[in-house]
Give the backbone structure.
Amino acid sequence: MFGFIKELGKIDVDYNDNKFRSYVKSVESDYILIDFLFYKGSEYNIPVESWVTVNFKEKAGVYSGDCQILGRDNSRIPGLKISYPSDVKFVQQREYVRVPLKLKAELVIFSVRSGSEKPEEGLCPSGRLELIPESEETDVRVQEINTLDISGSGFCYVSEKPLEKHSKIIGIIYLSNPAEKPIEISLQHVYSRTFFANGKEMYKNAFTFNNLEEKLQDKILKEIFLYELELRKKGL
């Protein structure tokens, strides 16, 4: 029944709108031991007996269930004890076609402030200032890009410099139909890899979408479908 719970298996823990990455350290008969949870470099303590949602990742998809925090274990294998999940649901991993579709987009890049200057205001060309928090500890920069390719799960773009260190990134993707509202979504940076074009070093930057709503994902898939349809009409 719980064959998807494996030692060293990667998990995500959701608690009060916060998402933590962890992994399974040990599977015991009456509890699961996971690595401690961290937020901004510090250990995050969730009260004992609190309920959290845990996503157990498998190649075929994700098993999601509710687990109770049982407490710390500081013995031979230190970690956080959680109960076995209840109300388990399985979400199959969908395979998405990635196409070389170029769409205008913006990256709203949040980084922890290193100095004492106040961040600029009105940075976002789209005018979506609600994305920019009023925090004296956060710098915000907006970068305009064009996607190199895109799928229902993420996209890539090319730059002359690698992506800077950041605490969070929001993507704003403009669809080909100007009447459509741009898609705003939290992004997860996957990698920045170097390659050479015309003798110049460039970077391919890849992102996945975080918790993209199905209706917004359908809009991206529609863009891909229309792109492929146009290619077929041209005999390509």
